[in-house]
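Lab notebook: predicted structure, single chain.

Context: the supervisor wants predicted structures on file for every construct in the current expression panel, including those that have not yet been purified. This is the next one on the list. No modifications to the sequence; it matches the entry in the shared construct table.
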Amino acid sequence: MKLKNEIQTVLTAAMKAKDEDTKRTLRLLMSAIKLSEVEERGELDTSRILSILQKEVKTREDSILEAKQARREDLIKAAEKEIKILNQFLPKQMEESELKTLAKQVIEETGATSMRDMGAVMKNLMPMLEGRASGQHASKIVRELIQNA
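Prediction complete. Output recorded below exactly as produced.
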């Protein structure tokens, strides 16, 4: 089943069950997906939907940081609940050791020796991740590996 259809199915079930948190979160996700489809003038593939999902999770993680600074426990709990709802559609996240191994392999393949080569490494690495790690996390690890080489 396509990821978009799976999200729609869960949204419909949440509406029938009157699960307001899931309904609200998935409606926001579906609107982000539909907006991207309008911008790109066509249906999105699974990898593009996964990147939107990761972006939505990242947005909520940022909200948690801001809510912690403001000492707003209610906002923290709401964002954590939304992250849990969104994570059910993301593939199992890659372990850091697995990500480092993959990054080292790509660095060797591209012959990267300095930070100037980081773009080429990331360009080759990101399609391999397929939503199992964020670009931010991958970037951090690649940066460390190149600087310590």
